[in-house]
Recover the amino acids of this structure.
């Protein structure tokens, strides 16, 4: 039964109507409500609620009365409804167990019933695997092999127009490693795999790689603008346009009426059915720019209203039924008229004042997944110059390389400025040149030229050139124009539907400024904790893991500071949360204990009403009037925003918050809110001290301060980008990266020994020839450090005199000393406590220093107290005591002794003398001398 | 339907007084002072309330029937779906 539920809950977001799905989808799909209508709608909904609520209550009653369901069954029903099964196994896992390919199938259709039927069909799965293997073979060889043959490309049935599928995802990338990662892809191409199987050594492979076509060594890439809008797939089937989001919900009702006509116009030259992939943003024609994230819905509504008034709506954009074959049926909106409760704005007869006249939705297209219809084959032939295999007249083209898909797209779409456009992009070619996509994707596909097969020694130069092009594109878009980021795509890549695994295939890579480790635009915000929320879930239940934070109200006066609610924030280590709980007196014994928690300084206010907002929250609110504000206090817009517990500022503490952006919001009284906020640091100094609160109030950022700092930051970044023309390139080639890593390692090496091996025999015995058995049965530990002979050392003379100079002169590192010991029958371990003799390189080496300092500390303690009682030792002292038994010998000792023993034919090891020690315990001196 | 709505619906269906301890346990399921050891786990919290009130006997409902039931529940919300943008105020 539970396995069934696991699978079932994936389907639920589609089963339940949109309202439900929104609340569980990510915040990306949240619309920003317009300020004016909020009160009205809230009242209306209260009158309307009972009917739906009564039905639901009756539904629940029926469960037990009509169907006789017991508590256990109802518990599982609730688990289904809240989409949290908590079985310890995810639906993805369950599907993978049934069939490895099931997840991909599901990504393509989002229809569990269909997918189950497909998986049960052995024939179907076999065919699918065959096609898949063909696809794998074709990756990376398209047009690059030098023999001019095209890979076999054919239409498949991975996706169907009008059926929900999940868009491809991009993997996040490190700026420095971008080119290295792209270069690694080459290793999985047939050409390189062939090399690897035929060549004997790595050097040989590397050498031969240089003779591979240049397209393989420097795969062409396309750079695209990463837009801050909503990702949508647009299905066009016989002129009817349906739209699905990446959360697998249909959004046709909202967007089809406004964008539909333009999409049809953009592709009117061809009679085809397609699925397009792209990003939707709101376009403000007055400002001539994309609107801020979150305003899409409002723009779409305004535009629709405007079109209706001018009778410009197309009935086709209301006459869609979502996937008759699938079950993802969403309610159909009736043609004409506004829905009840919809905001009808009165703009009189003057249409030019209507916001819909200058606000609309813009669709930035960047990919195509499916192509069918009478003109499908003709289009492919015209755009790419070849005819797909097979007899189908059209179908999914997921296995076509991006290069081919883009060519089809550029042939198909006739851009409608500011309505339907290709996303801004740039192609960086294999020779390091940058070409605009309009030119690159409309040229006849070039024949592979023989010259590119020559080995060229300017590989590094080409990579550098390519890196500079990417850097320039990034600087232009992100730093100067404050775009969200860029996406880097390989032109040979297929389209992989959006599953977790497709993200990790990383054919697409996203780069955002915050990945560069640069200061994000909104970091180091100091806010005061005003309240807290109980955690939800199995492990953290009953703990306080998210806080309601406030900023200082600019108008409040000293001695009586007031705060405006600002954001809800979480994300830090449980230890820190625990310490905060402890210092504020909150105590919840344990989840299994039924005893009630001690609240300490926290207090509860149960009703979610503005009259009950504590007095330390400012009466001033910028929720609805962004500049002047009103004095109605904070009006919680979401029930969840009301904290479970409040805390008075004088008992409270500060948190440092980091976020990606500061955005306008009506949720909190500061009028702004953070996007992707997380806690950087919880500051607990002074908490609980009397009146300490007053001191740190003034350290809290104020509302205007945050707004100003954020605006400044954005300006500064743009200014910096425009003035610093000769900045270093953020993108590194493979060689540059390796060099960089080496340098970093060298810097760190004295602190961090590379080998970490537990007490075990370090040196492998097989490959080394033994010379003598002088050191038999003795164990040594060679500490990490520097082992190299200083030519000015006095020991040199001794070494030359006694004939072991050659032995020590060739020593370069720790390992060499170990090999020497092994040659003479000794054993090496890495744990200094398990060895009879410990060897060190120089006194300055970190490890030697640790032991020596520990010994000093211990001696000081001994001098103070005369006796060390074991019970009173701290952990550190205990460790010191342990290490104090160790005496570190100079590494030269072992060479000298071995040489001497060889000469005199001694069998017992000559004991070290005091000058042989680097670190010496005083007690040991008396023994050893 | 969010957790808070589910709690409210189940409370009404059981005819519980909103002030009663069991009702509070469900409505404030995240609060350990009310939900005790069930804090943070709504299904468990409701289960604990139901357990006291009805026999724990298995039913004979089929998957098909249950599927229909869920479709029915989903249908209650149709009007709200049309409202779309103003959903924030409906909770």
């Amino acid at each position: 039964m539970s396995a069934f539920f696991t699978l079932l809950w994936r389907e639920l977001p589609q089963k339940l109507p949109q309202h439900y799905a929104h609340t569980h989808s990510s915040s990306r799909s949240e619309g920003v409500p317009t300020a004016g209508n909020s009160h009205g709608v809230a009242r209306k909904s209260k009158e309307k609620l009972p009917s739906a609520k009564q039905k639901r209550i009756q539904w629940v009653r029926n469960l037990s009365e009509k169907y006789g369901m017991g508590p256990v069954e109802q518990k599982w029903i609730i688990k289904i409804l809240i989409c949290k099964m908590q079985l310890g196994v995810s639906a993805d896992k369950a599907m993978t167990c049934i069939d490895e390919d099931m997840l991909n199938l599901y990504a393509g259709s989002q229809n569990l019933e269909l997918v189950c039927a497909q998986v049960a069909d052995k024939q179907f799965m076999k065919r699918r695997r065959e096609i898949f293997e063909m696809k794998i073979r074709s990756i990376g060889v398209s047009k690059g092999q030098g023999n001019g043959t095209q890979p076999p490309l054919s239409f498949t049935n991975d996706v169907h127009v009008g059926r929900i599928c999940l868009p491809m995802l991009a993997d996040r990338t490190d700026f420095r490693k971008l080119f290295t990662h792209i270069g690694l892809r080459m290793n999985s191409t047939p050409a390189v795999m062939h090399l690897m199987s035929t060549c004997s050594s790595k050097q040989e492979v590397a050498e031969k790689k240089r003779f591979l076509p240049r397209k393989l060594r420097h795969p062409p890439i396309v750079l695209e603008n990463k837009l801050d809008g909503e990702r949508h797939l647009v299905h066009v089937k016989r002129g009817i346009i349906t739209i699905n989001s990446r959360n697998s919900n249909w959004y046709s009702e909202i967007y089809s009426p406004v964008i539909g006509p333009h999409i049809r116009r953009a592709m009117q030259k061809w009679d085809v059915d397609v699925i397009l992939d792209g990003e939707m943003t709101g376009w403000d024609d007055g400002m001539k720019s994309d609107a801020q994230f979150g305003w899409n819905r409002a723009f779409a509504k305004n535009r629709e209203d405007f079109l209706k008034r001018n009778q410009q709506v197309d009935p086709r954009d209301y006459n869609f039924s979502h996937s008759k074959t699938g079950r993802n049926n969403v309610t159909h909106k009736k043609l004409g008229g506004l829905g009840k409760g919809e905001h009808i704005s009165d703009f009189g007869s003057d249409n030019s004042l209507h916001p819909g006249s200058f606000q609309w939705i813009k669709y930035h297209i960047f990919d195509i997944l499916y192509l069918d219809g009478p003109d499908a084959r003709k289009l492919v032939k015209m755009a790419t110059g070849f005819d797909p295999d097979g007899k189908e007249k059209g179908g999914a083209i997921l296995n076509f390389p991006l290069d081919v898909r883009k060519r089809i797209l550029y042939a198909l779409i006739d851009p409608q400025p500011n309505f339907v456009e290709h996303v801004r992009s740039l192609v960086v070619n294999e020779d390091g040149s940058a070409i605009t996509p309009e030119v690159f994707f409309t040229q006849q596909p070039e024949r592979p030229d023989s010259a590119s097969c020559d080995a060229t020694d300017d590989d590094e130069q080409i990579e550098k050139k390519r890196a500079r092009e990417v850097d320039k594109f990034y600087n232009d878009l992100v730093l100067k124009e404050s775009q969200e980021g860029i996406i880097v795509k390989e032109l040979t890549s297929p389209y992989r539907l959006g599953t977790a695994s497709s993200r990790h295939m990383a054919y697409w890579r996203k780069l955002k400024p915050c990945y560069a480790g640069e200061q994000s635009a909104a970091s180091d915000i100091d806010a005061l904790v005003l309240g807290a929320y109980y955690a939800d879930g199995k492990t953290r239940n009953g703990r306080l893991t998210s806080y309601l934070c406030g900023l200082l109200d600019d108008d409040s006066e000293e001695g009586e500071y007031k705060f405006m609610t600002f954001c809800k924030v979480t994300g830090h280590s449980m230890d820190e949360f625990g310490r905060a709980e402890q210092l504020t007196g909150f105590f919840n014994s344990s989840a299994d204990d039924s005893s009630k928690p001690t609240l300490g300084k926290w207090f509860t206010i149960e009703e979610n009403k503005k009259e009950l907002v504590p007095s330390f929250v400012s009466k001033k609110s910028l929720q609805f009037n962004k500049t002047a504000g009103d004095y109605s206090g904070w009006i919680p817009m979401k029930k969840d925003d009301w904290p479970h517990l409040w805390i008075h500022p004088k008992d409270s503490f500060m948190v440092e918050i980091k976020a990606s952006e500061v955005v306008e919001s009506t949720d909190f009284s500061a009028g702004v809110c953070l996007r992707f906020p997380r806690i950087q640091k919880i500051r607990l100094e002074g908490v609980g001290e009397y009146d300490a609160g007053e001191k740190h109030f003034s350290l809290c950022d104020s509302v205007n301060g945050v707004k100003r700092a954020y605006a400044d930051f954005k300006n500064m970044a743009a200014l910096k980008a425009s003035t610093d023309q000769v900045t270093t390139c953020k993108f590194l080639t493979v060689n540059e990266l390796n060099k960089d890593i080496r340098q970093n390692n060298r810097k760190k090496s004295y602190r961090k020994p590379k080998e970490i091996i537990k007490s075990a025999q370090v040196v492998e015995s097989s490959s080394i020839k033994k010379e003598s058995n002088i050191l038999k049965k003795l164990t040594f530990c060679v500490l990490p450090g520097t082992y190299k002979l200083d030519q000015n050392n006095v020991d040199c003379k001794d070494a030359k005199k006694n004939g072991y100079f050659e032995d020590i002169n060739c020593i370069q590192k720790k390992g060499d000393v170990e090999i020497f010991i092994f040659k003479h029958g000794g054993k090496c371990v890495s744990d200094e406590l398990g060895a009879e003799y410990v060897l060190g390189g120089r006194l300055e080496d970190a490890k030697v220093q640790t032991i020596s300092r520990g010994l000093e500390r211990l001696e000081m303690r001994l001098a103070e107290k005369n006796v060390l009682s074991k019970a009173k030792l701290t952990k550190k002292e205990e460790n010191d005591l342990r290490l104090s038994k160790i005496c570190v010998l100079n590494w030269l000792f072992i060479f000298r002794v071995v040489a001497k023993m060889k000469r005199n034919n001694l069998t017992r090891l000559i004991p070290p003398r005091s000058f042989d020690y680097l670190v010496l315990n005083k007690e040991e001196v008396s023994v050893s001398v | 339907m969010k957790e808070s709505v589910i709690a409210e619906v189940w409370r009404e269906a059981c005819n519980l007084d909103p002030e009663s301890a069991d009702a509070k346990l469900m409505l404030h399921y995240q609060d350990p002072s009310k939900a005790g050891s069930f804090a943070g786990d709504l299904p468990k919290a409701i289960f604990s309330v139901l357990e006291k009130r009805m026999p724990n006997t298995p039913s004979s409902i089929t998957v098909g029937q249950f599927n229909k039931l869920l479709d029915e529940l989903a249908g209650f919300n149709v009007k709200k779906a049309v409202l779309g943008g103003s959903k924030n105020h409906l909770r």
Summary: Chain A has 30 helices and 27 strands. Chain A touches chain B through 84 residues (CB under 8 Å). The first helix of chain A runs from residue 2 to 15. The longest strand of chain A covers residues 359-372.
